[in-house]
Amino acid sequence: MAQTTLSTDYLATLDQLAARLPALTELRTAARAAFHDAGLPTVELEDWRFTNIAARLLRLEFVAPTADAAAQSDAVETFSLGGLASSRQLVFIDGAYRSDLSAAENLPAGVTLTGLADALGSQPELVTSLLGKYAPFENAPEAAFVALNTAGFTDGAFLHVPNGVVVEGPIHLLYLTTGAATTAVHPRTLIALGEHAQASVIESYAGPDGAAYLTNAVSEIVLGPAAVLDHYRLQREGNQALFVHTQHIHQDRASAFSTHTLSIGSAMTRNDVYATLAGEGIDCVLDGLYMPTGKQHVDNHTTINHAAPHCRSFEIYKGILDDQSRGGFNGKIFVQPDAQKTDAKQTNQTLLLSDDAQLDTKPQLEIFADDVRCTHGATIGQLDQNHLFYLRARGIGPTLARQMLIHAFAAEALERMKLEPLRTYLDDILFAHRPKELFVELSEPVSLDLATP
Question: Which residues fall within 8 angstroms of residue 305, CB to CB, at 6 or more apart?
């Protein structure tokens, strides 16, 4: 076997981690074997040829995080979304659920929101009937990180909303990595909504700058008939971190799912999203915004499988690349033979702010039905000089004009978010993420009313 797997010492720790959740021993043993046999994905694989994450991982000697990792109260406050969901927030430190830092208040009767390890103790049959059923790891090495997560996770979030129950207000799942050592953390999220159930969920991943660590997260989302889930994922890992996230969504008939991903952290990011539309009348929305700077690398892969007729999927991913950063987008839409009347649209738009920035984009359609409406497209460009001239002609300085256009490009990706307080919060993050010198050009406060003719 080629040397594409992690150190023997770290693989040995997977057995120790498996012992913490004995109810999953069979599943985790199979996952460990799959990962050991296949190793990490390399650039020789088509889906990984632009993301050489194996080379970075093999240079590091990862250790398992300690079970009693100390909480960083300041970090929890910093990444708590301004208290947007403070009454329904689960906090995980180095992959371990911290009930003392979490709150699950005012939940409707029958809703379960807790750590995954606790849920395995209180509702083992429900959890084991779902966990690992929708995020397969057998297709290694392409699914190597799912196998590694399944073998190595010790905790995560579990949300179950029973039939007909509507959860008002957002639920925040906050995963923090301390970076105290070269740790590999494998958070697991399991969300299941019953028939006609509704909820809003925010997944946040964050960590400190200057620390080398791996966050390898897997989320499984299962929607029953006519269920509605409004989902958000915010990635603000440290500037030396490696971040891999795999999300599997399985939708039953007439359900509606939307997810919005914002990636602005980590040295290297890999996002994989797989959506299966298994029943008629399904709506699925996949949106993403990624903003790498410096030498950051962000690679997004999405797959939407239309397996039933009369379903709709809409996807827009926007990238803003600066300095020597690199981005990737690979979007696949499969329309199966029985999926007549499919309506699918996929768009990837990229703004390059530097001559050294680079994007690899590959939109794909595979259609095996004859009565469908499917479109896809990709655009890559720089700031429009005519738009810059228009703003300059109205007395706006060059750097501020440039920033206004950048922000307008990014803000379009936020407009589709239903959760307005979060949209406002993320809008502030976008401004904070840009270089400060762009906001000190004007010495006097100026009021701009661009809506006035």
Answer: 274, 275, 276, 277, 334, 336
Cβ–Cβ contacts within 10 Å for residue 25, how many? 11
How far is it, in rounded angstroms, from Cα 132 to Cα 153?
Answer: 12
What are residue 29's DSSP bridge partners?
none
Q: What are phi and psi of 45, to 5 degrees?
A: -85, 140
**Cα angle: 175, vertex 166, 111; to 5 degrees:** 55
At position 307, the amino acid (one-letter code) is: A
In 281-341 the beta strands, taken as DSSP E runs, fall at: 283-290, 297-306, 312-321, 326-335
Each residue's pLDDT tens digit, 411-447 = 878 888 888 888 888 887 776 665 444 433 433 343 4
First to last CA, the chain: 67
Per residue, what are the HEC states of 241-260?
CEEEEEEEEEECCCCEEEEE
pLDDT band at 375 (very low <50, low <70, confident <90, very high): very high
The model carries a pTM of 0.91
| 3-class DSSP assignment, residue 214 | strand
Q: How many C-alpha atoms does 402 have within 13 Å on its Cβ side?
A: 17
d(CA 155, CA 172): 16
DSSP H or E segment with residue 420 = helix 420-433
Look-up of token digits 């810059």: 388
| Residues 289-335 pLDDT 10s | 999 999 999 999 999 999 999 999 999 999 999 999 999 999 999 99
Q: pLDDT (tens digit, 9 = 90+) per residue, 231-276? A: 999 999 999 999 999 999 999 999 999 999 999 989 999 999 999 9
* Dist CA 365 CA 359 (whole Å): 20
CA distances from 215 to 279, 308, 452 (A): 33, 34, 47
- Which CA distances in Å does 435 have to 103, 157, 235, 292, 390? 35, 35, 19, 12, 23
